[in-house]
Amino acid sequence: MRFALLSALLLCGACSNSKPPPEGEGPDASVPRDAGTDDGGSTKVDGGPDNPDAGCVATSLVQPTSVAQGLNTPRRLAQDATDLYISETHSLNPTKSDGVVLRASKAGGAPTVFAQGFSVPDALAVDATYVYVLDAMGLWRVHKASAQKGDLPIDARLGTTIGATLGGTDLLLTTLQGREVIVVATTSRLLVRLDRDGQTRQVLFDGGAGSQVRGARLVGTDVWFLVAAGTNPNAEQGLYRVPLDGSAAATRVDDNIVAGTSLEVSPVGLTPTHLLITEGGGGSGTLKRWALSGGKTEVLASGLQGPMFPVEVEGSLYFKESSAGTPDFLRRVHACAPGGSEPVGPSGTGPGGLLVDGSRLYFTSQEAGTGGAVGRVP
User: Fold this and answer.
1) I need a surface site. Which of 48, 272, 356, 368 has the fewest CB within 10 A?
2) Dihedral sign (CA 203, 207, 208, 212)
3) Each residue's pLDDT tens digit, 180-227
4) Which residues constitute the domain of residue 198?
5) pTM
6) Is 43 part of a structural domain of the chain?
7) For the ranges 102-106, 234-238, 322-326, which has the lowest average pLDDT?
8) Which candidate, 69, 54, 139, 62, places its Cα nearest to that of 102?
9) How far apart are CA 117 and CA 164, in angstroms?
10) Contact 340, 20 (CB under 8 A)
11) What percent of the chain has pLDDT over 90?
12) Is 184 within the bounds of a domain?
């Protein structure tokens, strides 16, 4: 993977109108805006009657840092205070067990194999003692100190229901009535809660065979998630929520959210006010912001091939795009072009994964063979 200059653009100041328009009114993301260069070397959008965002100035280019190169299909990321964990698939054939989880120190140095013997590992989660790995054989729990995972997953039933090759699975760690629990969005059909030792399992939602269930984010006492039809034409698509304790059935909150692929709360780490939602693809994909108060939807980027994993960094929104071998795979919402987004490089392959650690952004390039990589900004 070639690490070119990254257009970091963490903040875009002096925008006279950075609020996205109502759905359907923003320009297509694939249409570039005319730009000039001021004396300081930064990109500036020219003004004019057809351009109300005059004077929107972006910061200078910065160089991304390589965390790992020469990887074979690195997918998802997780972290603790000192280390970064990377699921490396190797093969999309669920009959094989050549997938691994790598561990890389945030202080630097080459990543090492933390645990192996997985079949299409995807979503990861980390607590003080264990690393949790969801793959085509089920949900595994790997001891951080010994790297031992046992001969069997803590829930093998999940292995028959996850959409491993589709990706987009989710693991959510939280507590319930004093118990440490994990919520699993399988991509395929199910949202499940279980204790972190694999006990006290409860299906929170079943969308039916062929449906796709993605996203697992906690707001208050409810888990929010997305349902798409997949191969089930009768699936009730939309944005859902369900009590974490399973005391009531899941409720569809917005049936206008269709073909949802990923979900995040915004802002992260504070009292959330919005959900960030990606949906669709094939040139009609979108990134939307959905208000938790009132349910108003704003389109932040459109005209996308397959957006996933929106994250917020220092007030700017980044996401991954279905793209190979170009800077398009990592994009940022263009604060100066409502409804648009811009590639920020480097050259790579999406969708992979994104992870935020304070003001730092980690990302994977999901290229197979030896072209996969992990990088960070700054």
Assistant:
1) 48
2) negative
3) 999 999 998 999 999 999 999 999 999 999 999 999 999 999 999 999
4) 72-324
5) 0.85
6) no
7) 322-326
8) 69
9) 15
10) no
11) 67
12) yes
**Which three-class secondary structure state does DSSP give residue 175?**
strand
At residue 164, the pLDDT reads 57
Report the alpha-carbon distance of residue 208 to residue 213 in Å, rounded: 10
Q: Domain for residue 28, yes or no? A: no
Residue 142 within any structural domain of the chain:
yes
Residue with tokens 């959008």, as numbered in its chain: 45
Q: How far apart are the first and last CA of the chain?
A: 18
* CATH number of residue 297's parent domain: 2.120.10.30
Residue whose tokens read 């440490």 = 180
CB count in 10 Å sphere of residue 329: 27
| Contacts for 334 with CB less than 8 Å, ≥ 6 apart | 12, 33, 301, 340, 341, 342
Query: What pLDDT is recorded for position 279?
Result: 96
Q: How many residues does the chain have?
A: 378
Q: For the chain, give the percent of residues with pLDDT over 70.
A: 82
**Sheet-wide strand order for 65-71:** 65-71, 372-377, 360-365, 354-357
Tokens representing 211 are 């449906």
Number of domains in the chain: 1
Question: For residue 279, which of 242, 239, 316 has the smallest C-alpha distance?
Answer: 239
Q: What are phi and psi of 365, to 5 degrees?
A: -105, 115
